[in-house]
Amino acid sequence: MDYFYEHESELFTFYRVPKVLFTEEPFKNMNCEAKLLYGLLLDKMGLSRKSGWFDKQGRAFVYYGINRIMEDLGCAHSKAEKLLSELEQAGLLRRKRQGLGLSLIHISEPTRH
Question: Which of 25, 30, 94, 107 is most exposed, with the fewest beta carbons within 10 Å of its own?
């Protein structure tokens, strides 16, 4: 086993998944892959800010194509769609299809109950 030393400790970046998705209802029973996808979506919010992707109400959105989701998660089309639907049903995102497998996605904050 090799360890991280001084300057190496910052070599990796990380995706962040809100703890509430693991501790609060209705998220406890959510598929772990859907939670990971939510973390990937949150990571894309930085690009939204840089690109000026905001709607008329000032809400940020991301573009995330189904093919890219399949590639990022190593899953089939049906699984990617199922994960997006699960996040949508949990109120964590709202998507508007743009054609050719691309969706404009508004991401919601997970609310505690």
Answer: 25
